[in-house]
TrEMBL record:
This is glycine--tRNA ligase. Its EC number is 6.1.1.14. Gene3D superfamilies: 3.30.40.230, Anticodon-binding domain, Bira Bifunctional Protein, Domain 2. Keywords: Aminoacyl-tRNA synthetase, ATP-binding, Ligase, Nucleotide-binding, Protein biosynthesis. InterPro entries: aa-tRNA-synth_II (IPR006195), aa-tRNA-synth_II/BPL/LPL (IPR045864), Anticodon-bd (IPR004154), Anticodon-bd_dom_sf (IPR036621), Gly-tRNA_synthase/POLG2 (IPR027031), GlyRS-like_core (IPR033731), tRNA-synt_gly (IPR002315). GO terms for molecular function: ATP binding; glycine-tRNA ligase activity. Belongs to the class-II aminoacyl-tRNA synthetase family. One of its GO terms (cellular component) is cytoplasm. CDD domains: GlyRS-like_core (cd00774). GO terms for biological process: glycyl-tRNA aminoacylation.
Length: 482
């Protein structure tokens, strides 16, 4: 666990986990490329997630929907209209807020007399507008420069960190539009998906009709989502392109108590993070969304938060979305998405509980949690769970200029390669090779030396303790707990 995100960012770059996107062309903000180590770790997270939530359960099935979908999907979900607010970001704590909410909350907390004392930029705000704002305590219809001028007039500080360090306010929609077709004027508007969730809703009927599922059941999906985020900083915590792992769990609210189901998913998420990923309990907490913060269709939303070096932040959201999404898609598509209940003879529209996580955010959490500085041995160690380590076993010949050692080490490497994620390294002195493996989190480093040629044993070095043991080659795989 580290206190400064820069240490992890530097290690991620130095050791091939994550590079800034388009780096040789000066970079594109909020985009990242995954290197040899990062791609292995991300793949392991995705596979573990799928295994835990889909493969090991009877009541979950998976899909993989298109990343590009009709604009009508996003009209129905409310994303095309709902994400077009003027937003402002606190540069200090990354709080993002609707700028009209920020100002109106301030107006509500202050008397008109007090508000009237402010000096404002009259080239942007007329006397008439100013008077209207302070008497009605509403800012509807104002322009972005007018919002900013009001914030400056009262020095409205961030409600979260109380600093006055805002970006200019800007109107934006989080969705990325794509224009399909090559003939100008005949192109049709589509969007890169802003969440994988909608893929599950629009395929609900397909899945019901083509598989043996019955309520309650869930549809799961992992894949890329895209959001035109303006917040910068904190590495891959918030990016414009990211991998999500989402589940829409459908149920009949008359037969299944949503509170019991909600509890079940809370406990599944907690178990996954603590037991499967090995994250310490003390770095995790639940946060219940307030009424204002919660989406209007959600009855309950809770975030599982992790104590990142920049504070406790959302890792994973859990929301009871009611029947909002299926109803919206029924309305906009005209397709009946209700389910016939053979017991009651009635049709119902299922309700939904949704656990939604960012896989890249899990990756960042894992690296922050595993990052350790061993001051005694002067090394940085990534104490990754062996099943997550990008390289699980590294194999070295003691020296690279003795063919008999190199051949024997090659033999050991070939034996282990089908059984684990392995790496071969014969370059440089052995101490440096160990330090490199420590930094990428390799739990075992095996060295073939002169004794190996005599008794078929090798040295196994343990990453966390740096202790070494001799183990016979034939027992190697069983010895390592991978
Ligand atoms: N379908 C619901 C939904 O997408 P969300 O809270 O917007 O809810 C779910 O996103 C999760 O996806 C978050 O908890 C976070 O882990 C991840 N996430 C959201 N936006 C992200 C971004 N811009 N970059 C990286 N991860 C993001």
């Amino acid at each position: 666990m580290i206190s400064n995100i820069d240490d992890v960012v530097s290690l991620m770059k130095r050791r091939g986990f994550v590079y800034p996107g388009s780096e040789i062309y000066g970079g594109v903000a909020n985009t990242y490329d995954y290197g040899p180590m990062g791609v292995e770790l991300l793949r392991s997270i995705r596979n573990l997630w799928w295994d835990f939530f889909v493969t090991r359960r009877e009541d979950l099935v998976g899909i993989e929907a298109s990343m590009i979908s009709s604009h009508r999907v996003w009209d129905a979900s409310g994303h095309t209209s709902g994400f077009s607010d003027a937003m402002i970001d606190c540069k200090n704590c990354q709080l993002r807020k609707r700028v009209d909410h920020l100002i109106e909350e301030y107006l509500d907390q202050h008397e008109v007399k007090e508000l009237a004392k402010a000096s404002y930029d009259s080239s942007i705000i007329s006397e008439e507008i100013f008077q209207k704002v302070i008497t009605t305590k509403k800012v509807e219809g104002l322009s972005l420069p007018q919002f900013d001028a009001l914030i400056r007039a009262w020095s409205i500080s961030c409600p979260s960190c109380h600093k006055f360090d805002w970006t200019p306010s800007r109107k934006f929609n989080l969705l990325f539009p794509v224009h399909l077709g090559i003939i100008e004027g005949e192109q049709s508007l589509a969007y890169l998906r802003g969440e994988t969730a909608q893929g599950m809703f629009i395929n609900f009927k397909n899945v019901m009709d083509t598989s043996r599922v019955k309520l309650p059941f869930g549809i799961a999906q992992t894949g890329k989502s895209f959001r035109n985020e303006i917040t910068l900083g904190n590495s891959i915590f918030r990016t414009i392109e990211f991998d999500q792992g989402e589940i829409e769990y459908f149920f009949d609210p008359d037969k299944t108590d949503w509170k019991v189901l909600f509890e079940h998913w809370c406990s599944q998420m907690w178990t996954f993070v603590t037991k499967e990923l090995g994250i310490k309990d003390e770095n995790l907490r639940w946060r219940v969304h307030s009424d204002e913060e919660r989406s209007f269709y959600s009855k309950e939303t809770q975030d599982l938060e992790y104590n990142f070096p920049f504070g406790f932040k959302e890792l994973w959201g859990l929301a009871y979305r009611t029947d909002y999404d299926l109803k919206q898609h029924m309305l906009h598509s005209g397709v009946d998405l209700s389910v016939f209940d053979v017991e009651t003879g009635k049709r119902i529209i299922p309700h939904v509980i949704e656990p939604a996580v960012g896989l890249n955010r899990i990756l960042l959490m894992i690296l922050c949690d595993a990052y350790t500085v061993d001051t005694e041995k002067k090394r940085t160690v990534l104490k990754l769970h062996p099943k997550l380590a990008p390289v699980q076993v590294a194999v070295f010949p003691l020296v690279s200029n003795k063919p008999e050692l190199v051949d024997k080490a090659r033999e050991v490497h070939a034996m282990l390669k089908p059984l684990a994620r392995t790496a071969w390294d014969a370059r440089g002195n052995i101490g440096k090779r160990y330090l490199y493996q420590d930094e990428i989190g390799t739990p075992y480093a095996i060295t073939v030396d002169y004794q190996t040629l005599e008794d078929e044993t090798v040295t196994v070095r343990h990453r966390d303790t740096a202790s070494q043991e001799r183990v016979s080659i034939e027992k190697l795989h069983a010895y390592m707990q991978l």
